[in-house]
């Protein structure tokens, strides 16, 4: 069974940094694109970033561009999200998701999420 | 960026009812649309992809239709476990965007 397990969420001060990790299992990780999606408390889903299967191509939401960096280590079956210059509005549950491996981009496997709180 | 607009934002219904939720895209996306269900405190679950394809394991009472800019999620006979929040999402290009969500409540 395909599984994703996020870690690294924490309470951090505005302007601080955090690195989220997502370990995959149960599927050939290096074949799949991966995404990060976030959800602020009581709000809807917001796509954050994606990375292709070999890490050579990445995309970001405008709200995080220049502050967040997505990366992956296929040998460790892990995708990362480095978050710098954190703001209060980055407070959210961050989900790691798997792209469904088709011509269009949907998310067919989700982790349980890790919580990031940015507050002084 | 492509904007996704769902309606209604909330709907009340009874067990056994048929319910439809709509999603409009700000520009044509062919059939590049997905629907998700989210339970409180849980990660979303993919229900429908490519506008009308049922994800494996999803009950057949869920169906999707539409193309271009207008899409519909139909639940044919509501079960107690269906009273959750539903999101549409376009998969046409980046940035991916979601609708604002529709909360399905018990009447």
Summary keywords:
heterodimer; A: 120 residues; mainly beta; 7-stranded mixed β-sheet; globular; B: 107 residues; 6-stranded mixed β-sheet; 4-stranded antiparallel β-sheet; 48% strand
Task: Set out the fold topology.
The complex is a heterodimer of chains A (120) and B (107).
Chain A: E1 3-7, E2 11-12, E3 18-25, E4 34-39, E5 45-51, E6 58-60, E7 68-73, E8 78-83, E9 92-99, E10 107-110, E11 114-118
Chain B: E1 4-7, E2 10-13, E3 19-25, E4 33-38, E5 45-49, E6 53-54, E7 62-67, E8 70-75, E9 85-90, E10 102-106
Parallel strand pairs in B: 2-10
Antiparallel strand pairs in B: 1-3, 3-8, 4-5, 4-9, 5-6, 7-8, 9-10
Structure characterization notes:
The complex is a heterodimer of chains A (120) and B (107). With 120 residues, chain A is mainly beta. In chain A, the strands form 2 sheets. In chain A, strands 2, 4, 5, 6, 9, 10 and 11 form a 7-stranded mixed beta sheet that branches. Chain A has a 4-stranded antiparallel beta sheet with strand order 1-3-8-7, with no helix packed on it. Chain A has strands spanning 3-7, 11-12, 18-25, 34-39, 45-51, 58-60, 68-73, 78-83, 92-99, 107-110, 114-118. In chain A, strand 9 (92-99) and strand 10 (107-110) form a beta hairpin. Helices cover 0% and strands 50% of the residues of chain A. Chain A has no helices and 11 strands. The mean pLDDT of chain B is 97. Chain B starts with a strand and ends with a strand. In chain B, a hairpin with a 3-residue loop joins strand 5 and strand 6. In chain B, 0% of the residues lie in helices and 48% in strands. Classes of the chains: A mainly beta (120), B mainly beta (107).
Tell me briefly what this model is:
The complex is a heterodimer of chains A (about 120) and B (about 110). By secondary structure, chain A is an all-beta fold. Chain A has strands at about 5, 10, 20-25, 35-40, 45-50, 60, 70-75, 80-85, 90-100, 105-110, 115-120.
């Amino acid at each position: 069974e395909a599984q994703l397990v996020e870690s690294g969420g924490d309470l951090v001060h505005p302007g601080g940094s955090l690195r989220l990790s997502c370990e995959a299992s149960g599927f050939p990780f290096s074949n799949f694109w991966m995404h990060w999606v976030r959800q602020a408390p009581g709000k809807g889903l917001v796509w954050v970033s994606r990375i292709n299967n070999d890490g050579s191509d990445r995309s970001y939401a405008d709200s995080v561009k220049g502050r967040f960096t997505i990366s992956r280590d296929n040998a460790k079956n892990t995708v990362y999200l480095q978050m710098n210059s954190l703001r209060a509005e980055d407070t959210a549950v961050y989900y790691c998701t798997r792209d469904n491996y088709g011509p269009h981009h949907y998310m067919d496997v989700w982790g349980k999420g890790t919580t990031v709180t940015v507050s002084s | 960026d492509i904007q996704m607009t769902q309606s209604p934002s909330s709907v009340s219904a009874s067990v056994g009812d048929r319910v439809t939720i709509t999603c409009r895209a700000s520009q044509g996306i062919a059939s590049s649309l997905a629907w998700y269900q989210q339970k409180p405190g849980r990660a979303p679950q993919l229900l429908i992809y490519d506008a009308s394809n049922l994800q494996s394991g999803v009950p057949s009472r869920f169906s999707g239709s539409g193309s271009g800019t207008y899409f519909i999620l139909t639940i044919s006979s509501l079960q107690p476990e269906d009273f959750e929040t539903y999101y549409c999402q376009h998969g046409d290009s980046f940035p991916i965007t979601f609708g604002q969500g529709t909360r399905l409540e018990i009447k």
